[in-house]
Structures are given as structure tokens and as C-alpha cells.
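Budget justification, computational time. The allocation requested in the original proposal was used primarily to generate C-alpha cells for proteins on the priority list. As evidence of use, we reproduce two of the resulting records. The first is shown immediately below.
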Amino acid sequence: MGKNRFAAGIVMVPCLLLSAAFFSTAVWGDVPGENQPLALGLGGLLLAAGLLALLIPSTNPETKEDETDPAP
């Protein structure tokens, strides 16, 4: 089964937005000492997941024989 471009975008965009939210919480949070490593770790994991969804190569869609153009 090949990669769907739209599904990859649906995974990538929220992951990148949530990672930005976790990174900003780690930098500008109220209590930086207690939860800062957790926020940095979650932000890094989400960033990696979003970029991995973007970088996985897509395959060409399979075509059925009756859908191809006939030779002239």
C-alpha cells in the first residue's frame, strides 16, 4: 500500500503545530524547572514524527489495465 499525500499532510501539520506549542511552553513557561525537559522531549518527538511523515517516499499509484490509454 502506497503513501497517501493527503494523509501525510494531515499527520504532518498538527504534529508541527503541537511541537511548536511544546517548544514555546518549554521556553516561556511559568515553571521552567519542573516540566521543561518533558515539554522539550514531547516537542522533539512530535517534530520528528511530522518530518518523518513528510520525508517517507511516496509510491506511484497502481493503474489497472483497463484504465490505461490504448496504443494508437
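The second record produced under the same allocation is shown here.
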Amino acid sequence: MPKRVHSTLILVVVFVLGLGAGIAGMVWAWPGVHAKYFAPPHRERFVPMLTRTLKLTPQQVPQVQSVIDEQRKHLHEVHGQFIPRYNKVCEDFLQVAHDEREVLRPVRQQELDKLKAIMTTSQWDKFEADRAQAAKAHPQRPPDACRNGSPAPAGNGGPSQPHRR
């Protein structure tokens, strides 16, 4: 094999190995992938940690697990009692945000009219197209508490998504 082909082959192999290592590193560092496939569930981390640090006996481990399960159930019930209040706060916020947008609408229109007077027709058309595209890509959304923790209030157009933890 000629020396030039040999050195090219070595460079290609090194490049492919580097590319593979880079992709593997990105997958490993990606929080969603790492958490889903490599991190054990919270309970499985907490109980073994207690078992190890407190030197729990085999008889104590199921008892500790049952206490943790009871606590989790109780926390879920208490949280459920407050959901109507969360929904009310979310509805209030969405109404205030809507009112604010309505007050600012004439001011924004004046600003747009001033910009239109400055720009050429082609510049204005491009500006409007870019604005429309940005509005589609980044619609106005309520904060996470309204979007994730409770259903969207009726009539406000907010997305309804399940609660994520």
C-alpha cells in the first residue's frame, strides 16, 4: 500500500473515531437521554442510600419504603386540594396579561406606523413576513405554572398540557 493512501486511511479512521466519540459524548451529556436511560428512579436512589448510610436491616427496608410511599401519597393529596387555587391564580394572570396587551395595542400600532413610514415597501414587506414567522415560531404562552400545572382556563387560548415533573 502506498504511503499516501496509508496516511489518508489513518486520517479517515481517526476522524470517524473522533466523530463517534463526539456523538456519544453529546448523547451522554444530553439531560433527557441521560436521565431517561442512565439515572435510576428517585426512590431507587434514596432507599439504597439510606440502606447504605444508615445500615438498615433487610426487615427495615420495606418499612422505610412504605413510609416513603405514604408520604408521597399524602403530598399528592395535599397538592390536589390546592389545584382550584392554582387554577384561579392562573386565570387571573391570563386576564391581566390580556388586559395589558389590549392597553399596549394602540402604542404598538403607532410604533409600527412610524417604522412603515421609514422603510421602503420591500423592506416593510420583509419586516412583516419576518414578524409573522417569528409569531408562529414563538407564540405568546402563559408561564409554566399555567401551562403545565393546571388546565388552561376556558376562552384564553392557552395550551392544556399534563403536569410534568
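A brief technical remark on that second record: The longest helix spans residues 60-118.
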